[in-house]
Write a structure and sequence with these properties.
Bound molecules: zinc ion
Mean pLDDT: 91
Structural class: alpha/beta
Number of strands: 12
Radius of gyration: 19 Å
Shape: globular
Helix content: 40-55%
Order of helices and strands: EEHEHHEEEHEHEEEHHHHEHEH
Number of helices: 11
Strand order of the largest sheet: 3-2-1-4-7
Largest sheet: 5 strands, mixed
Low-confidence stretches: 27-35
């Protein structure tokens, strides 16, 4: 058994867990696949860490912001290591593009100003443990993949949070793309000429299907600024603007998914992220639009599940991806 710390870095908080898993020899892994690793989350902690605000405050290429981010993560890790001294490595899911060749973070749209930084090397120097960094949605996809009840070869993860991220497990391996930009599904354009997105284009899916997208839709219709969670509560109470905001989110997500499936043709899709809690208000519009937009041969052959792991998939996946590389 090995212990690895898994970390999910968000814009405003840091979630960290100690993951225990059975180490397998390489030959064994190849023979039976990674789903036999049976990870177990022993402990989970959450720390407030406004990295997004920090990056905005200090501006681009700020050494100060980067130093603060590193020392904050290191302090959280050391607090956990005091209790679990045999931890062998740290795996981090980070919201940004991670170059699969250099491990460097080339850019982080949610943490503006960070570019070409090496979290793995810089943090490893501080804590004297191996550190592996991956994209946060890819880590969550892998977390879902290694804990899913039935054996799968392929899995697509869609994470609905502040933005919308995607992660693909293809032939049992995480798929990063050549530059770590694979499955940036939130930026598939579903409303040409629509809302301006942080990426510079107009009408990207995440402008409608993310938590911030739902808030904007609701604000435009009602004049009130509310969180996605509050809008879900209002949808439950019968507020028609709230129901419409979630319906538009579901429809936009389905539009993008139909395009994605034309490219990768996978059967199993897991929807996670904080906003998946409001899935029941998106589901009908989602299913209707998906049936409409899918290539007819795929209709009825796509399984979409909502995660049952709360927000633990990112932590477990980050740890298990680090375990793969040890
Ligand atoms: Zn975009």
């Amino acid at each position: 058994m090995a212990l690895i710390i898994g970390i999910d870095v968000g814009g405003t908080n840091l979630r960290l867990g100690v993951v225990q898993y059975e180490v397998q020899h390489k030959a064994q892994c190849n023979a039976v696949g990674s789903q036999n690793e049976r990870p177990k989350l022993l402990e989970e902690m959450r720390f407030q860490a406004d990295f997004s605000g920090l990056c905005k405050l200090h501006g681009p290429d700020s050494d100060q912001a980067w130093h603060k981010i590193l020392t904050t993560i290191a302090a959280a890790i050391n607090a956990v290591r005091a209790k679990y001294p045999t931890v062998a490595a740290v795996g981090i899911g980070f919201p940004g593009f991670i170059d699969p060749h250099t491990q460097r973070i080339s850019l982080s749209p949610n943490l503006p100003g960070l570019s070409n930084v090496d979290l793995s090397a810089d943090l490893s120097a501080l804590i004297a443990l191996p550190v592996i960094t991956e994209n946060d949605a890819l880590a969550a996809a892998y977390g879902e993949f290694v804990t899913v009840a039935k054996p799968l070869n392929n899995l697509l993860y869609l994470g609905l949070g502040t933005g919308v991220g995607g992660g693909l497990i293809l032939n049992r391996q995480p798929f990063q793309g050549q530059h770590g930009v694979a499955m940036e599904v939130g930026h598939i354009i579903v409303a040409p000429g629509g809302r301006l997105c942080g990426c510079g284009n107009y009408g990207c899916m995440e402008q409608y299907a993310s938590a911030s997208g739902v808030s904007i839709t609701y604000l435009e219709a009602s004049g009130e600024r509310c969180s996605a969670a509050e809008i879900a509560a209002r949808a439950k109470a019968g507020d028609q603007h709230a129901v419409a905001a979630y319906s538009l989110a579901g429809e936009s997500l389905a539009q993008a998914l139909a395009h994605i499936l034309k490219v990768i043709d996978v059967t199993d899709i897991v929807v996670g992220g904080g906003m998946s809690a409001g899935w029941q208000y998106m589901q009908q519009a989602f299913q209707q639009r998906l049936n409409q937009d899918l290539i007819p041969v795929l209709r009825g052959k796509v399984n979409v599940y909502v995660t049952d792991m709360d927000d633990q998939a990112g932590i477990i996946g980050a740890a298990m991806l680090a375990g793969k590389k040890l």
